[in-house]
Amino acid sequence: MDTDKENKISITVIRRLPKYYRHLGELLRRGINRTSSQELSRLTGFTASQIRQDLNNFGGFGQQGYGYNVEELHSQLGKILGLDKIYNTVITGAGNLGQAIANYRGFAEAGFKLLSLFDKNPKVIGLKIGDIEIRDVDELEDFVRGNNVEIGIITTPREHAQDVADAYIKGGVKGIWNFAPADLKVDDNIIIENVHLNESLFTLSYFLTNKGDYVKS
Amino acid sequence: MDTDKENKISITVIRRLPKYYRHLGELLRRGINRTSSQELSRLTGFTASQIRQDLNNFGGFGQQGYGYNVEELHSQLGKILGLDKIYNTVITGAGNLGQAIANYRGFAEAGFKLLSLFDKNPKVIGLKIGDIEIRDVDELEDFVRGNNVEIGIITTPREHAQDVADAYIKGGVKGIWNFAPADLKVDDNIIIENVHLNESLFTLSYFLTNKGDYVKS
DNA sequence: TAGATTGTTAATCGATTAACAATC
DNA sequence: TAGATTGTTAATCGATTAACAATC
Predict the structure, then answer these.
(1) Is B42 touching A (CB cutoff 8 A)?
(2) Does CATH number 2.60.40.1240 belong to domain A87-199?
(3) Is beta strand A151-154 parallel, antiparallel or unpaired with respect to A87-92?
(4) Straight-line distance from CA B49 to C1' D18, in Å?
């Protein structure tokens, strides 16, 4: 928890880390235990120079003349990303999207433990997704408080997103993973990570419409 | 389709456009017909200066001393984003995520017409999601070719993503909206837009783990 | 008209790339 | 050792912010 400005890492760098992590994981699976900034460049599309700069924000993980040990670097990045811990999570909005996330094995494997789903539709309350029960959204705040939920996931329609966020925060979550097309208003100490699918699709639409009319950077 | 470097727009700018568009839509719904770079700044979190710069890449939509007409600007941005057209789309991977996208009304309203879902699981082939049939993935390439599908959506597991992309491209899609945690290898003229949920969640995890240890920019 | 707000240029800031000495 | 590749500094490039004349 450094407070000097000098030591802070820019968000641009941080958003590249998961991609390094994923490719290192793939190398690991393929039994490759040595890599280089050049190889990672080929895999990720970032320049070798940029990769060396990025990694050196966190320490000298490499060795001159050799490169990087895949297992070591993968594990270090995992720690930096906080993937060596278990996070308690809940999902509010038990529709298809909520269920999709609930069923995705990758998240559980990375340490994100789903404790419950919440919905306001009486028809689905009490049902189970796998072995996870769907509860009444009225119980949300109490459940969050009582179970040390650190990450609240929002997969409700836009209209309800802010209310759900408020309940999460009162219950004590530290971060919110938000899929609703809304900009949540929260205190500075709450981390919000948005997945705005419409913005992503509209960007694709732009590129289809204006082929060539843009620059890489 | 300008080819001069001078007139090209940077991706950073383009990725902000859908957010402007969304907030203008909300103002419109609220019956507000006049806005300013200052108000848009408050809504979007970008600086007023940045917003004026961004919009002026595409033309002078504002009026000194007045600001911007909401309806006009919304409509202009819609055109710039290509939302005034209809795109034929299909989804491959009829699991929860594919169904979530299939059921999302917002996309249909924005002109993205879903023609079919595809899957390789015989148990779901022939079923319907709403009034959209799930077809055998073996028919994918032919269907894409025969129905002028321009956008192919991938919601399969990682292992199949590249094969699906290849079939899409052979069939003639121009763009791919990819939800699989894989970096697809495609020709330069194919537009790829990735939604990497794991990268998003891992970024959230980083911020939770390293609170304060980063800078805004 | 007076006040407001744009469009646009110039200044600043930050991120990427290039280069190379250090060293395994 | 010779070759390879890092870590790191300096140079370049691009994006953001500041400022203000133009003008509605």
Answers:
(1) no
(2) no
(3) parallel
(4) 9
What is the DSSP track for A129-189?
A: ETTEEEEEGGGHHHHHHHTT--EEEE-S-HHHHHHHHHHHHHHT-SEEEE-SSS-----TT
Averaged pLDDT score across all residues of chain A = 94
Strand partners, A188: none
pTM over 0.85: yes
Cα–Cα distance for residue pair B79/B206, rounded to 1 Å:
37
Q: Chain B 77-106, CB below 8 Å of chain A: which residues? A: 80-83, 85, 87, 95-97, 99-101, 103-104, 106
Task: Return the pLDDT at A170.
Answer: 98
Contact predicate B120/B136, CB 8 Å = yes
B 101-120 residues with CB < 8 A to A: 101, 103-104, 106-107, 110, 112
Cα separation, B99 vs B115, in Å, equals: 13
| B151, B112 Cβ separation under 8 angstroms | yes
Highest CATH level, class, for B3-80? mainly alpha
pLDDT on residue A6: 41
**Are B201 and A15 an interchain contact pair (Cβ–Cβ within 8 Å)?**
no
CA–CA distance, B78 with B88 (Å, rounded to integer): 18
- Mean pLDDT value of segment B63-74: 97
Query: Residue by residue, what is the 3-state secondary structure of B159-191?
Result: HHHHHHHHHHHHHCCCEEEECCCCCCCCCCCCE
Phi, psi dihedrals of residue A143, rounded to the nearest 5°: -65, -45
Q: How far is CA B14 from the centre of its chain?
A: 11
Q: What is the average per-residue pLDDT within A84-113? A: 96
**3-class SS shares of chain A: helix, strand, coil, % to 5:** 45, 20, 35
Q: Which of B85, B87, B47, B55 has the alpha carbon at shortest distance from B72?
A: B55
Task: Say if CB B171 and CB B142 are below 8 A apart.
Answer: yes
What tokens appear for B37 in the block?
A: 């770079």
Q: Cα separation of B154 and B118, whole Å? A: 10
- Chain A within 8 Å of B8 (Cβ-Cβ)? yes
Give the DSSP letter string of B111-131: TEEEEEEEES-TTTTT-EETT
Residue A217 has pLDDT above 60, yes or no: no
Q: Which helix (H) or strand (E) holds A214?
A: strand A214-215
Whether the per-residue pLDDT at A215 is higher than 90: the answer is: no
What are the boundaries of each domain within chain B? 3-80, 87-199
Q: What is the pLDDT of residues B164-217, one digit of tens each?
A: 999 999 999 999 999 999 999 999 999 999 999 999 999 999 999 998 666 654
